[in-house]
Amino acid sequence: MRMTREKTVVQLTYLPNVFPVNCYLVEEEDGITLVDAALPNNVKAILQAAEQLGKPINRIVLTHAHEDHIGSLDGLKERLPAAQVFISKRDAKLLEGDRSLEEGEPSAPIRGGVPKKVRTKPDVLLQDGDRVGSLLAVAAPGHTPGSMAFLDTRNDILIVGDAFQTRAGVAVSGQLKLLFPFPAMATWDKRTSLETARRLRDLKPSLLAAGHGNMVLQPQQLIEKAIQAAERSLAK
Fold first, then answer.
1. Digit-coded pLDDT (tens) for 13-41
2. What is the pLDDT of residues 91-144, one digit of tens each?
3. What interhelical angle do 220-235 and 190-201 show, nearest 10?
């Protein structure tokens, strides 16, 4: 996996030039928080990257429960039994393979690859405003009902899962980029995604770190353009 560092965050990318799948190592004084778990065959590469940093992975935080974000979870947990696993309370249902909607949610079907046989149970069910080390958990529904983003409060780096994509250009989840359409195809509710994008914009991130695509420094203008494109699309 390709390693790219920006301050306290290291992006690990599988197949960067073909079908980029990202996860992130966030350095803390007491170890590493892994954000997302990529694909099942990425266990060894993730562990080797942490070894290069010289710190243990002691927390595994999931932005959402799609298969390309939780693929290595069971393999990592087997090797790191002391590591705590975090996911939103809402997407914990998806982690168990439950696609059912909750009362009051938009009626669109939950899309994308939802796991069926994950053995690992989360230790902590996150809610908006919770803290995981230096990370602030921010509710970011839309791609899935319980998606979350994580803001590194030390430097305003924002890890967004699939609330945005940066591959083939910055886009709000659900807005189709023909050169990389897959996040849009796996999005649950476009209008909820747009509301989330506005909220994440208002955090004024110094860097945007998405599940698919390169990290983007000083992303405010590109985020604003992506929001405007989503607004136009949904107004049609």
1. 999 999 999 999 999 999 999 999 999 99
2. 999 999 999 999 999 999 999 999 989 999 999 999 999 999 999 999 999 999
3. 150
What is the pLDDT, as a whole number, of residue 129?
98
* Residue 160: closest CA among 211, 230, 201, 224: 211
What is the rounded distance in angstroms from the CA atom of residue 10 to the CA atom of residue 23? Answer: 9
Encode pLDDT of 144-181 as tens digits. 999 999 999 999 999 999 999 999 999 999 999 999 99
Chain CA centroid to CA 96, Å? 18
CA 36 to chain centroid:
6
Parallel, antiparallel or unpaired: strands 84-88 and 57-61: parallel
Residue 3, beta-bridge partner list:
12
Predicted structure pTM score:
0.97
Give yes or no for a contact between 38 and 23, defined as CB atoms under 8 angstroms apart. Answer: yes
Would you state the structure tokens that stand for residue 155, as one six-digit string? 């430097």
Rg of the Cα atoms in the chain: 16
pLDDT for res 145: 98
CA 81 to chain centre: 22
Instruction: Quote the CA–CA distance of 204 and 219 in Å, as a whole number.
Output: 9
Quickly tell me which residue has 């990389």 as its tokens.
180
Give pLDDT, residue 20: 97
